[in-house]
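To whoever is on call:

I kicked off a structure prediction for a single chain this morning and the downstream step that reads the tokens threw a length-mismatch warning. I double-checked the sequence; it's 466 residues and nothing unusual in it as far as I can see. Pasting both halves so you can look.
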Amino acid sequence: MKKYDLVVIGAGPAGLAGALEAHELGLSVVILDDGKRPGGQIYRNLEDLNDNMRSVLGKNYKAGKRLLRTAKHMGLDIRAEAVVWHISAEKMVYFVHKDEVVVVEAEAIMLATGALERPFPVPGWTLPGVMTAGAAQIAMKSGSAIPAGRIVLAGCGPLLYLVAGQLAQAGADVRAVLDTTPRGNYWRAIRYIKLGSTGLSQLFDGVRMIRTMSAYGIRRILQVEDIRILGENRSEAVEYSTPSESGIIEADCILLHQGVVPNIQLYRHLGCEIKWADSQLCFHPLIDGNWETSVPGVFAVGDNACIMGAKAAEYSARLAALHIAENKKRIIDPKTRNSIQRKFRRHTEIRKFIDTLYRPPSQFRMPTRESTVICRCEEITAGEITDLAAAGCVGPNQAKFFTRCGMGPCQGRNCGLTVTELFAHATGKSPSEVGYYTIRSPIRPLPLAALARVETNGLAADIEFS
């Protein structure tokens, strides 16, 4: 077992930037990531993708090349295909690599596992042919693959328009984008527009996305208030309604997206305190000014801490790394810290505008149709959860015992927020009062054969299996 000053979990923009900063300050660092190559979801497969698809994916994707090259040049210790499944209270990090369980010891842990797409439970979303917009983008990055047939995208958020344009440029048959952004969001968001250079650049990026869609003749339907996916054995069409119209669009592939939320599974596993952030309608880890969680020595950075974007994620991780190095008696230049803080603020100046504009409507977060499935793994409906709340069930963890909701392979990643909000709505409590699932080991599935070979001295009492 090897001990490191810092173990970074996640090799996306935040993880790589934080590890580089710590490495340059003389700390021993290892990065654990479950991908085949570093880059995370944002810069997935960047160095191996063909030039045409790199061009389609755009300048923000290609901007990661410098970070990846620096990490390679600096010789960072990056363990690819390393699936973290348990972290002990003593900061022993267990992961599976090549079907073997490996353990490393950390003085400090930086969680940089990024974000998940927010659940989008609508009737028919479990049919074959329906997936998230992020999954379609991953397919483009992984192997230049695009969905076959007629494509309709639905939801809200910048990624929705970005993926629609990217798919069209890659040759996909994109028929329409159903935008669920309420009209009132535009008026509420306008007060938060920041006119700094970075904010303006991000606004112009949004305008370019819409122009790209128009250039490819993609139909844009605004203020969508209701969505149903139709089909018997697979998706065949999307039925929608707005305040002024309703219709059905035939589609072979439907891509859903209504923003991203922090991946809080490891925080819940470690016992870090979390809080409900109404501005982003999700749970965040509670962190101090140095990005440290309520558990000493555990740091939250990037979109894993709160949704901030790729460039801001890098600067948040660098700031956390400076604090970790300072605790190890390294000398930190105040000018360096101030410079990084200024860059972080610049890249987050438009965040409140984006959060307000693309705030998902309640009917797409908490289904009004009782028959709508909200837990895909166990096929639990919205009606079953509201019935439990009415019967006195106190929250998500008790609901597990009655329904197995949240006990499937995803361990609540695809239903956790929906269940919390359904309980809050039904009981009149706040999401903070309702809470979230308790997460136990193993965090991710692992082969029993690998687990059987684990040295168990002192381990048995530390691990609880859900």
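Update from on-call: the warning came from a stale cache, not from the record. Cleared it. Sanity check on the structure: The chain has 18 helices and 21 strands.
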